[in-house]
């Protein structure tokens, strides 16, 4: 079986909500209090895709295409990682416990540890998207990045797979900075897994807002982490809105449409 990447659509809202809802209800990783409805979530996806990529990782029964350097493939065993009982770690999905991962251009082929829940063809395991960093025109070359991985799929490197694809896609849009807004704390609702994930992905800490968010009867800090992904030029090429250049951007980044 493979884990492959494609664009999300509003029709994926229900499946993505199944992944997102535990982060809202059980953790401080998301600062939302209430899980959005399917219609609202579908609208969020649709609005995001006007300007930015919205990617998802799914299980495929197709054979790996090891020679296709543009196609993201992630080879896995027939069993997924078990749910576990610890705090959800939204961005920590890196280790492949059996077999060594290898990179061949844009291909990532690895084996994964068997530990319980069966994967099904078409099952969505995680998603990542970009959003507006700030509304003013001068911020067009910066984007905020987000990634969420299913609790049952945190041992396959899904977060890395999605974030690397998101970076390629944003770079094809002439975006030069990825910025992550990350909840900070260490209690039963939150840990530092997201910070550590972003560090491994090449992000660096650039600032913190202290006690700026209140959830579950306690206050949390919020950190900004940044990763330059392009060149800073005196005559910067215009940012390319995703919807307008979708086919070209996806082809260059190896994303299914």
Question: Care to describe what's here?
Answer:
With 257 residues, this protein is an alpha+beta fold. The protein has one domain (2-246): Gcn5-related N-acetyltransferase (GNAT) (Aminopeptidase). The protein is built from 5 helices and 12 strands. The strands form 3 sheets. Strands 3-1-2-8-9-10-12-11 form an 8-stranded mixed β-sheet, sandwiched between helices. A hairpin with a 2-residue loop joins β5 (102-104) and β6 (107-109). It is globular, with a radius of gyration of 18 Å.
List keywords for this structure.
single chain, about 260 residues, Aminopeptidase, eight-stranded mixed sheet, two-stranded antiparallel ribbon, 5 helices, about 30% strand, globular
Map the helices and strands.
Blueprint: E1 2-7, H1 13-26, H2 38-51, E2 54-60, E3 73-75, E4 79-80, E5 102-104, E6 107-109, E7 117-118, E8 124-132, E9 142-149, H3 158-172, E10 177-184, H4 193-200, E11 204-215, E12 218-228, H5 246-253
Parallel strand pairs: 9-10
Antiparallel strand pairs: 1-2, 1-3, 2-8, 4-7, 5-6, 8-9, 10-12, 11-12
Helix pairs in contact: 3-5
